[in-house]
Amino acid sequence: MAGMSGAHGASYCSVNTFTTNSSWMQFAKEPVPNEYGFEDKFKSIHCCVKGYRSIEWFKDGVAYPWSAGVSTFILYPKAANQTLYTQRPSRADSGNYTCRISNETHIKTHTVTLNILEKPTDTPKIMFISNDQSVEIGGGLRLYCEALVGRSYLADARSDLQWRRLWPNGTEGDLLPTQFENQTTREDVKDIVGSYLTVERVSAQDYGTFVCLVHSNGAVTRKHVTVHYRNGDSDSTSESSWCGGGAVPWRALALGAAAGALALLSAAALHRRCTPRLLLAARHARARHQPPAARARVLEKEFDVLVCWTAVDGELVRGALLPTLSLKYKYRVHAVLLSTQPDTWYSELVSEASRCRSLVAVLSPAQYEPQQLLTALRQLRALPLPPVVVLLQDLPKLKREAKEGGESLVSTLRGTRLVAWRHVHERAFWTALRLALPLPPPAQRPRRNTESKPNPCDAEEIKNSRSGSLTALV
């Protein structure tokens, strides 16, 4: 396989999967939230799922594919895009990788926090352990634990992971013969080991607490999982005692509840999808019935939209945002390239803003510290035009912003019109952006009556208004 000869772990999502025959959208095995790798050593990340229609990947909020400055990971299509890999990871590849899966009705996400280390660690790091479980007698049990362990440097040093049983007196002992343990290792990172604890048919002796015990060169880490008893007859008991012994139609109730929930979800999805489009269509309908004087006021300004950005975002703005606004939606666009530091943005934009009807600022929050982001927003909000801020990345958590930038940053963000960029072909983004902007000038209809000659001043004004939309392509 070209480019994938060393792609160890490509079959990760096809082994040790859950034994279920259901077809709905779900994870095919335990979703590990933490991953580790080493510099210049092959590394893969997985999102093992089934029953989905599409899968998308994001790194720190940035959608795949990524530039070299964001991540060197690429998709492995032969694994149904459930696997990312890179041959030579670096510390810059560390971050939060999110897979978003969807079908006709549902969307699920899973985030993996990746840390690329310089060298193997001496202290074990548990990456995943199953939650406490409730199992009925005769049911199946599956527990999983995975950890990054250090390599043994001494002959008598231990570096392993195993399941142990915690007895009522607080001591740890061996597993029972009915409790099977299956050790696993990662093909991409040998220092990552795991272990499955399974019981085919649970009996009374299988309830209690189990310990995931990890040794690594003298260091010991342990985590606990408790298996609780679940009464399998509780449903039938409640059925016979409900309403004086009459049988409760639990199946019909469950189906009704599912149908109601599906109707609510469909209504919410329809509202989210269609309401902005209806609002935009209503604005256009009202504009068609405006008097000539109101239409003439639209042309009092030289441009409809002032778009400003820094050199970091120039490729996206010039290649997608400006041409779409100008050529597709017929806005007269004026483009201004800003300096990297936001301290002088007001002075750079104030004279240009007087020539325009609205202002769009394109920002990548990740390139600014919280205080710089606050300065940028204040500079924009001081202009006579209320800014519409297009965010090319998700904002960090507001709690962290409040700590690092003060409550003023949080209040400034909440008082600013923010529109999140996703993709050039995502209709929801363009609808939200157009709702935040004034409508472009109405199209000029050709006159059938040619008896009177047009006013030279009017002809010059129309010429300027048309040429303004070409500014986006300069």
TrEMBL record:
<feature type="region of interest" description="Disordered">
    <location>
        <begin position="440"/>
        <end position="474"/>
    </location>
</feature>
<keyword id="KW-0325">Glycoprotein</keyword>
<feature type="domain" description="Ig-like">
    <location>
        <begin position="54"/>
        <end position="115"/>
    </location>
</feature>
<keyword id="KW-1114">Inhibition of host interferon signaling pathway by virus</keyword>
<keyword id="KW-0922">Interferon antiviral system evasion</keyword>
<keyword id="KW-0244">Early protein</keyword>
<dbReference type="InterPro" id="IPR007110">
    <property type="entry name" value="Ig-like_dom"/>
</dbReference>
<keyword id="KW-1090">Inhibition of host innate immune response by virus</keyword>
<feature type="compositionally biased region" description="Polar residues">
    <location>
        <begin position="465"/>
        <end position="474"/>
    </location>
</feature>
<dbReference type="InterPro" id="IPR013098">
    <property type="entry name" value="Ig_I-set"/>
</dbReference>
<comment type="function">
    <text>Counteracts the antiviral effects of host IFN-alpha/beta and key IFN-inducible proteins involved in viral RNA degradation suxh as host OAS1. Acts as a soluble IFN-alpha receptor and thus inhibits the interaction between host IFN-alpha and its receptor.</text>
</comment>
<keyword id="KW-0899">Viral immunoevasion</keyword>
<dbReference type="InterPro" id="IPR003599">
    <property type="entry name" value="Ig_sub"/>
</dbReference>
<keyword id="KW-0945">Host-virus interaction</keyword>
<dbReference type="InterPro" id="IPR036179">
    <property type="entry name" value="Ig-like_dom_sf"/>
</dbReference>
<keyword id="KW-0393">Immunoglobulin domain</keyword>
<feature type="domain" description="Ig-like">
    <location>
        <begin position="124"/>
        <end position="226"/>
    </location>
</feature>
<dbReference type="InterPro" id="IPR013783">
    <property type="entry name" value="Ig-like_fold"/>
</dbReference>
<dbReference type="Pfam" id="PF07679">
    <property type="entry name" value="I-set"/>
</dbReference>
<protein>
    <recommendedName>
        <fullName>Soluble interferon alpha/beta receptor OPG204</fullName>
    </recommendedName>
</protein>
<comment type="subunit">
    <text>Interacts with host IFNA1.</text>
</comment>
<dbReference type="InterPro" id="IPR015621">
    <property type="entry name" value="IL-1_rcpt_fam"/>
</dbReference>
<dbReference type="InterPro" id="IPR035897">
    <property type="entry name" value="Toll_tir_struct_dom_sf"/>
</dbReference>
<keyword id="KW-1015">Disulfide bond</keyword>
<dbReference type="GO" id="GO:0039502">
    <property type="term" value="P:symbiont-mediated suppression of host type I interferon-mediated signaling pathway"/>
</dbReference>
